[in-house]
Design brief:
InterPro entries: Metallo-depent_PP-like
Protein name: Calcineurin-like phosphoesterase domain-containing protein
Strand order of the largest sheet: 3-4-5
Number of helices: 3
Helix content: 25-40%
Strand content: 25-35%
Radius of gyration: 17 Å
Number of strands: 8
Organism: Musa acuminata subsp. malaccensis
Length: 145
Amino acid sequence: MAAVSLGSLSLPPLKYQKVAVCCSYVNGSLRPITVSGNPPTFVSASGRRIVAVGDLHGDLSKTRLALEMAGVLSSDGQDLWIGGETVLVQLGDILDRGEDEIAILSLLRSLDIQAKSTGGAVFQVLMIKYYERILSILLCRILNS
């Protein structure tokens, strides 16, 4: 396990574990989604459609467009999950650019809640470099406020 150090501030080591998450019964059977890592670094959903989008960079309108093109977000402006059993995996940056970071996080959270009711799911997969970057941005914002 790697410890993260930012100047004189040391953070505890990151812990990784493998977890099986079951969203719901679909057509009478339980269909698991396997996730490794905390934060997730691997997502597997056997027999389901998996859609990945990356580097949203705080741009809500382009995020919505990408999700609509992927067939998981309604195009009527209601921000409704239409992906059914699809598993949406968001990779890479949301933070550090653009004005809509919180709105994008909120949208993804809302879609995850909606997706679970139809057997789908939404995951954000972060690599260590993104975890460290997000942490450093948040710490800088806290220290500068």
